[in-house]
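Submission sheet (multi-component)
Chains listed below:
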Amino acid sequence: MRTPVKKIVTAVGASVALMAAGHASAEIKIGIAGPMTGPVAQYGDMQFSGARMAIERINSNGGVMGEMLEAVEVDDVCDPKQAVTVANRLVNEGVRFVIGHLCSSSTQPASDIYEDEGILMITPASTSPDITERGYELVFRTIGLDSMQGPVAARHLISLKPERVAIVHDKQQYGEGIASAVRDTLQQAGVEVAMFEGITAGDKDFSSLITKMKQADVDYIYYGGYHPELGLILRQARQAELDAVFMGPEGVGNKDINTIAGDAAEGLLVTLPPSFDEKEENQALVQAFADKGEDPSGPFVLTSYAAVQLVADGIEQADSTDPFEVAAALRSGSFETPIGTVQYDSKGDMQSFEFVVYEWHSDGSKTPVN
Amino acid sequence: MATHSLKHALFCAVVTLIIAYPILGLDLEARGTSVVLAGADTATVVSVLAAALVVFVFQLFRHRILGSLGTMPSLNPFANREPMPQDKRQRLETIALVVLVVAALIWPFFVSRGAVDLATLVLIYIMLALGLNVVVGLAGLLDLGYVAFYAVGAYTFALLHQYFGVSFWVALPVGAGLAATFGLLLGFPVLRLRGDYLAIVTLGFGEIIRILLNNMTWLTGGPNGIGGIPDPTVFGMEFGRRVKEEGNVSFHEIFDVAYSGSHKIIVLYLIALVLALFTALVIRRFTKMPVGRSWEALREDEIAARSLGLSRTAVKLSAFTIGAFFAGFAGTVFASKQGFISPESFVFLESAIILAIVVLGGMGSQLGVILAAVAVIILPELAREFSEYRMLIFGAAMVLMMVWRPQGLLPMRRIHIEINKQE
Amino acid sequence: MQDVLYFLQQLINGLTIGSAYALIAIGYTMVYGIIGMINFAHGEIYMIGAYTALITITGLASLGVAWLPLVLLVALICAMLVSSSMGWAVERVAYRPVRGRHRLIPLISAIGMSIFLQNYVHLAQGSRNIGFPALIEGGFQFGAADSFQTSISYMQITIFITTLICMTVLSLFISRSRIGRACRAVSQDLGMANLLGIDTNRIISATFVIGAALAAVAGLLLGMYYGSIDPLFGFIAGLKAFTAAVLGGIGSIPGAMLGGLILGVSESMTSGYLSGEYKDVVSFGLLILILLFKPTGLLGKPEVEKI
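Outcome: structure written.
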């Protein structure tokens, strides 16, 4: 009812997958794993839209080494348990390249399976440093790390000369990871962190937490997590007349925060990847998205696009569809993508990635700060 | 009568419209920064109207429809058959079981990897359901927090491995034993509660365990769960691509076969099969022992059983502890199969699914419970294309089964002694 | 002074949530009192009430209706209408055919219904959190302007007063009206009431309808108070409300109110003085403790074991 088009696409995709199983290896299967449903499905939409567009454009240019790319889409609901289930399903379907997952806490357990089964994975959105810390050969990403983003946020807070800062997180790998990075940088600079507290994702009543922050008399609040909870915190803080400036990572930078928080979202500070869609050389691509009625401005659309393109370029470069050889090619080469020139270090992280501080407005637009 | 049924039918049709139209026909959509209301497509509106019409017609001719259904010849040709003589039945059952076990041992070598993986999951649910069957089916104690013991087993293995590098075979008895201890400790105070109050307390206990696992981030990783849980080894052989533990050897190197991801899956399946058989046999044994007989006695009539000298606490505790033990068992296998666990795997819905399996199978009946576990886990997987509607259908099926066949697929048969008829 | 104000603020937070829990708890307590089953789907009825209210409010806004009392009244009526129809239908479809069977059967049927309704809304409306407009804004402040101020928002006052009104009306209804008297008779002895000419089916339906209507009131109020709704939020709220009903003594209406308030306050005090992460542990722990020492709850009547 909600998205008949998506259902038809999935159904067609599934039947195509079934038919393709008969005559194998005519196509290169690309698994796309992210949340299609659940509280952070907005980010999943960005991921799927970017990856689909890349596959479409690569196929219309003759595919990779003469073979077409074929998407196998799975929904992990941003839940670690489901992520493991869908990762196993991708293994069973014979997928050898995966774009995903989105949430760090899903990517981490899924990557164990991919590495073990010899599947190459590029996450367009997971920023937790742990994911590439384990010496895995087949794990890459097209986004920066919490250890880059946290300090950017913290340095911006320090420049605002805060008296007391409260840090709240949702205890998930992504939220807590980035909150800890912010706390460490703040404490090194001698800023008083008055509170460091976890909440439960999915909660709706934050009145007690807000009262506590009011009591602690903080003037800045950093939230590590996603927008459904921060939206509620913003709004309930406004109701309780808590006067402080909020800041969050890219997981909160989404227009849906405005539908929840309303006017209270005005002035929220967000660290985001730079707006790749405003770059000169991407305008043809942006037009292609606009022609399909999609919006390329979300933080993960073009990182997903780039991830698919990297898989294709890696296969061409390695002249093989063996994931290990493609991984070696990705590590050694340098690739031009919509998110800039990508070069990988030995861990599978990009050698440079930038985060920018934006100010969020109540009409859902954003303006760069500084 | 006619006007009454017309009025009733009209009322039912209007109620159908009221409950279906606003939720199905009017979509809340976030457009930009505001929420707007979008009308659903015509097909939805038409189907809502059609549903109301169907309800109207059905309610109007309800008695006639139900009446004609009643006079139809029974769909089940065996319905009125004489029960089979007991010795013949037992012989048939034994043969069927042996054939089943042999088939279960052979088939993973001929089917796809995904099918074997799914079968392992089914076996885990069979263990869980057999364990809960002892508590609910045999002892009649309503346990809504059974998943807590499952979590204890799984987390015991995960934590022991993470901090002490303990392997599957050591963790299996430890996890099951710890779950049983939890069952004993919880059971001691709460088993004097009756019926629904017991259900509520166990539900609360299950939630507390899950929330604690979610909050003790320093120990359990909180919502991020614990990963890297190893697969079982067989005589020190590992089945992964690379050897993870020092001192182990790799299966495909020793036997000099090409590495295949399906070795691991098949081995895990076989281990789960052996453990599930073990569970079934042990519980079967128990039901024939005095303790098993006293579970049923206490379930049927508590006062009579107590006046015959059965200790209520001891009997209930034994059932509760044994049930918890096998949940811990299943938990360890689950942790090993997934390689990753998080509190999300142990939510209330999981307890509800296991309970549904037990009730669906026919409370107390082992074969029925096994059949139900196969049905409940495999049927939704077959309907992959309808994956969005899976849980919707699951919920509806639970209600319909309770309405139409509350005794379950294979209701339990009482053990009875036949007295030879006088010629 | 500041500590007192802080305590007061947490107390207000707790009483607000607690009174909303009490409204939902009524549905559990009345149904249990009459037919002795746990209506697991009640949390979903509350969620559907909240969705209907939001749909109505959005629809009225797009029609240009902006006069607040009218919007609230229409939303309330629509939510109550849809929720009570749902409550009625659920009882007809899933509970009446299995009434009187082994007590596990209605319970499983209720759990199935809960899963069904959750996914029904999930499929129809999507799984995202949808923002709920804050229609009632502003509030009072106490305390010196330069230090901690206790604030009571108009929304909190609305929740509290609405709950009080609903509870009073319901108590009067149960104790004075014909249907109320019949309700009490049925809950004491269903078979006997039937013999005395009370249409028990009708009374049981009425119980479900009343409980669902109050849940819809809670859905509208909490939707506005929290700020967003999603298809899953009924389940947790239902579990909490059920806990409140058991805490106060299941079957007793003042008990539901008391249980709700105790639960709300204990949650907000745990968040306020310990950590918000443990509030649910404390509520369920409290439930277990009370059941162990007073199995029929705070205001419940002791059950006599009949032989």
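Remark: Residues 58 and 66 of chain B are 10 Å apart (CA to CA).
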